[in-house]
User: What shape does this take?
Amino acid sequence: MAAKDPYQVLGVARTAGEDEIRSAYRKLAKRHHPDLNPGDKAAEERFKEASAAHALLSDAEQRARYDRGEIDAAGQERQPEHASYRSYAEGGQGPRYRPGAAGAGASGAYAGFDPEDLGDIFADLFGRGQGPGQGPGRGGAGPRQGRDEHYRLELDFLDAVNGGTQRLTLPTGKTLEVRVPAGIEEGQILRLRGQGGAAGPDGKAGDALIEIGIRPHAIFRREGNDIQLEVPVTYSEAVLGGRITVPTPGGPVSVTVPRHSDSGTRLRLRGRGVPAHGGRPAGDAYVSLRIVRGEVDQRLEDFLREWSAEHPFNPRQGMVD
Amino acid sequence: MITIETLCHSIQGLRGEEVELWIGRAWLRAEGGPGHYRLREIDVARARLIHELRQGLALDEEAMPVVLSLLDQLYSARRQMRRLRAALDAADAGTRDRILAALRMAEAGAEGAGPG
Assistant: This one.
């Protein structure tokens, strides 16, 4: 994507001062912020351009390099693209911030009124879930849709990270094949169309709504799309370096421990975290090293006694008087 | 789920105390308690939004709750509209036509009618 001239985007002169640039950006951001203009693609584009232009011009060093022609306007486009708040707010996680939900919103002004109940209002309107012929007005005569059923599916950590097909046995004895997309998160809800309550005459069956739970893993921890894990190394592997094999969600990977590593040294395994999903690239795996002592014999003791005497070092300096 | 520390690492200029403050004010939700909060993906996206509103749009602390509350209402309404649309899509043609006709009547009735 060819980036436009950032001065042009913000509508300021090349000599514009910091304040002028910030004020021009704020003006554009207020008008075009995608969360203030949901669904407006053009506004979203304008906002992205303005943000990119502002990011470039508000950084004195970047701006100077741009002015000197060392980088082009796309220089700042390397900043990672983030999924917008809207993509979550209108998705399955959205009701987390519905007005009136515990802790959400600014005040308790909406307490007692839950707009998400709209579904129930319409359920009544169409006579869903009522006895035959008892629906109010015309609704009673119409086709009746089956009710949505709610279930919970507990996944092993790796099944949630890597995705795959799971079997869910319902209280009725029926089993459902659930296709779990890679990178699914705790609390997400999968909808299986037509797998819920049975339909009335001419109506459609309801949906099965499956809330996902994820069991913790003994080794891996997930942070966003990244995976964190701690790996023990021997004293000599840490000091001398070498290749070791470490587990990742996708399988074992060989990595090089750099010479003179230490407990807490972090190695980044690019793309070995949560696999790419939903348009987002794969995350990384971060390996933290932890030195383990291993076997100690008389020779090692003798060596250390002699060596330490020659190399005094107090790692607790400053911690205690 | 990520920690506040990781969040601050990925959003330039964001400080941990600020995020804890937002959680305290119920602008942002998080799992866990003070000192060991964990954020979901939607919380991360919302934190980025609040940060943009504060820094980029220079929204002050007084105005923020009003804006967030309006945004929450807007998204709630949009989720409802999506569900309504899905329900209409799932309905048979006769039902859909009756609803559309009723909508047109309601619209015609609303024209010219002002408040109170």
